[in-house]
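README, section 4: Worked example with a bound small molecule

Sections 1 through 3 covered apo chains. Here we extend the same pipeline to holo records, where the ligand is supplied as SMILES alongside the sequence. The molecule in this example is zinc ion. Nothing else about the input changes; the structure line simply encodes the ligand pose together with the chain.
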Amino acid sequence: MIAALTFRVFVILCLLVGGIAFYLTGQVWLAIALHAILVSYLLAGTLNPSSRLFGPVITNCENDIWITLDDGPDPIDTLAILDLLDSHHAKATFFVIGKKAEQYPELIREIHRRGHGIGNHSWSHPRAFFWCLGPIRTYREIAKCQKAVSNIIGVAPRYFRSPVGHYNVFVHPILKHLGLQLVGWSSRGYDGINASLKFVTSRIRKSATKGGIILAHESTPIAKEVVADILRMAAEKNWRCVTPDGSQESYNC
Ligand SMILES: [Zn+2]
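The generated complex, written as structure tokens:
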């Protein structure tokens, strides 16, 4: 990991210094080309949910499947989804938005009471600009959600999922400071932007693998149906739906 990070820093410095050197020697187009590559490289690390450019991200679990549900809690979906999970003896991790957790603390308590994991999904879910927040605002977004959840259930989340999977150079040091690990996914159906149940479930089924992390959302018109289909798929394939939250172990990245 250290070697990989060192290599990435080396590449970034080479592109930066090389561009400056070309500029100072009058080779402006070469300078522009190198800095364009540098910007593309940094943007790829920022906007790609699975990118490890800035630090580790968990994209698979060790066994069976890990269902993760973002954007709750939700007064319509959460209890229905909890009942669905219970009926399949399945566990999931709910990556909750701090503001909504504070609004519906009874739902947070119920998720926790039924033995599911609660992860941090930022305080206000700034989907369009989380990736470009500065260090102070990034810290507030993560720490405020952490505090909201721990005030309700007395336990701080161990996992963080960034809004729409985007992050930046400030996120990993903050996560480390707060004792959090970044969680990505290996399978999703784009249910946050597409309300076609057929489209969403077929995408999830095509991409789901044993040992994978499935991303789905609450607060969508098809939230319950999507979870129901994931549970049906897991039963068909004889996969258990487990989370790392109940154990003392953390997943390796
Ligand atoms: Zn989200």
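What to look for in the output: Residues 2-47 form one domain. The two ends are 10 Å apart (CA to CA).

Section 5 describes how to batch many such records.
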